[in-house]
Amino acid sequence: MNFWSDPINSVYESWLLAFTGWGLDATLSQVIIYILGILILITFAMVIDILLVWVERKVVARFQGRLGPNRIGPFGLFQPIPDVIKLIIKEDTTPANADKFVYNLAPVLSLASVLFLWAVVPLAVNIFGVDLNIALLYMIATGAFGTLSIIMAGWSSNNKYALLGAYRQVASMISFEIPMVVSLLIPAIITGTLSMKTITEYQVNNFWFFLVSPLGALLFLIAAIAELGRSPFDLNEGESEIVSGYHIEYSGMKFGLFYAGEMLHAFTFGGLLAVLFFGGWHGPFSSEFPLLGVLYFVAKAMFGYWIIMWIKYTVPRIRIDHMLLFNWKFLTPLAFALLIVTALVHPLLKDQPQWIYILGMFLSNLLLGWVTIEILRGRSAKERAAVEPVAAVGHH
């Protein structure tokens, strides 16, 4: 079997034969192979996570006119290594009145909730963890572990500032989960499945979903940034108000797990954006050479991650009430309107030639976007008309 065309099965069959040749039962050999596969996938994700530390520091340095890491290794590439060592040897403190079991479990659960997502992400045509026919539901359910870890960390720390930061973050995550779930339904409507592998294969054989639902991709990106708690939605870390949020009491590697989880979560959302709207691993010769497909997937995920960083280091933080009103009065209604438009236009055009389908779906998104802008413009004009007389009276 050619390793480059089917690396997983090539290694799997050669190792399975080796294990059974040593006298191991075939079922036990399969279990060992599955465990090794899980460890390899986790190692792949964590190595990327370490690289992201360097990438983010370099990107923010470029945005702010600084150099970033440039001392350890070429271009400072090895800087994350002493950073990790520092976190490992740093003093590990636990508040005296904390609920120690919940306090210690929270950072582990925070990172694990991100790693669980990688089980259903197709990295290439035949490189994936498991092909679940309810992968989108699994992704939503797994995200709840991240929400749970935040409230666990804030409550178990026995610190009012940590608890307030947890409440803010959980309120944001639960609120923005609604437009995120709605945006996930758009690829499901088009393909008729919840399997992420099938969604990717449909785009490989037809077209990227970004072409037919750019608004859906935009909604998913905005909701993902809010789920991450990154600027402009980082109210959990309002330093002037709540002193660094829900993980204020964590130090050393416990804080490192929260930090690693956030970095990997941002990259994972970039990967999910690629899978759902940009063809995932699809690219030239990606079907013939799966390892090339992995590179395409990582490149697309990194591009999504770069957009998230761009927004984080450009847009200022907004108030908590403005953030929630933005979701409930704008983002959620827009998401449901887009879902209704997609559900109506898709069955009308699905039997038409592909170019007509793409053009019709794209124009429906364009029309909905134009109507939304006009509604916002009218609302803004009314608000301005109501405020200007009051301002004029105050001035006199």
Walkthrough of the structure:
The chain is mainly α and 396 residues long. It folds into two domains: 1-89, no CATH class; 95-372, no CATH class. Helices cover 72% and strands 0% of the residues. The chain has 13 helices and no strands. Helix 2 crosses helix 10 (252-277). It is globular and about 85 Å long.
Quick gist of this model?
This protein is 72% helix and 0% strand. The mean pLDDT is 86.
- β-strand percent reads under 5%
Please tell me what the overall shape is.
globular
Helicity range of the residues?
Answer: over 70%
Q: How many DSSP helices?
A: 13
Helix and strand string, N-terminal first?
HHHHHHHHHHHHH
C-alpha Rg (nearest Å): 23 Å
Characterize the biggest β-sheet: none
Q: Report low-confidence residues grouped into runs of 5 or more.
A: none
Total number of distinct structural domains: 2
> What is the straight-line distance between the termini?
85 Å
What class do helices, strands and sheet pairing give?
A: mainly alpha
Features:
single chain; 396 residues; mainly alpha; globular
SSE blueprint:
Blueprint: H1 7-21, H2 26-63, H3 80-89, H4 100-117, H5 135-156, H6 160-191, H7 196-205, H8 214-228, H9 239-242, H10 252-277, H11 290-312, H12 320-349, H13 354-395
Helix pairs in contact: 1-2, 2-10, 3-10, 4-5, 4-10, 5-6, 6-8, 6-12, 8-10, 10-11, 12-13
